Amino acid sequence: MLLKNRLFERQAPERDAKSIFIFCEGRKREYQYFNYFKEIDSRINIEVYELEPSENNSPKGLLEIAIKNIVDLSDRVMPKYDFHEDIDEVWLVFDTDEDRYSSREKQINKIYEECEKRKNWFAVQSNPCFEVWLYYHKETAIPNIKDIEKCSSWKKIVNTIFNGGFDSRKHPILYQDAINNSKNNFTKQNNCLKAGDTEVFLLAESINKIVSKRISEVISLI
After folding, report:
1. What ranges in the chain are assigned the alpha helix state H?
2. Domain count, the chain
C-alpha cells in the first residue's frame, strides 16, 4: 500500500528553504492533496492554507484571503506567513464552474490581473473542478463522458478509475504522470479553459523542481 508514511522519512524544511503558499477553493480535497508534499524534501516548505467554514472561498474571496495572509499592510494585523518575494511563491487554486449569479468569470479575470501585478504570485484553475487534475494521475486523454462540464461527472469518473476513490495519502505520488497527461490535453484562450483542462500542472511543476529526485527514488523501489 502506497501510504506516504511508509514511503518517505519526513524532513522539516531548512531555515532558508523555498516556501510555496497555496490557497485552495476546496476546503478538503485540495487541502489534503497538497499536504501530501509537506516535508518530503528539506529544501522546500509547503504551506496549504486551511479555510475556515465561515470564510468566502469564491475566487474573489480566495484572493482577499491570500492578500490578508501574505501582504504586509501597515494598517492591519501582521500577515500569517513570512513571504520573501525573491524566492517564495503564492498559488491560488480554484475551479471554473459557474455560480448562480454568473459572476465567476469576472472574479477569475480579476485574480489573473492581480497575480500579474505581484512578483511570484500565480493563479491556476481547473474546468470544471479539481477532480480534472486528479483524473490525469491515471488517464492520458479527455474522457468521453456525459455532461463533461459538470463537477458531478468528474467526481464519479475519478471514483471509478481509482479503486476506493482517490486517496490523498498515496495517489499524489503519481503527480508526474498527471503533469504530462494534463499538459498533453491542455488548451487555453485568454483565461478560458475547455472542459477537461487544468492548469494545476504549473503548480506541480514548481514543486517538482525540488522534490522530483526523492519522488523518483521512491517510485523506483515500489
Report:
1. 4-7, 29-35, 59-70, 104-117, 131-135, 151-161, 175-184, 200-221
2. 1
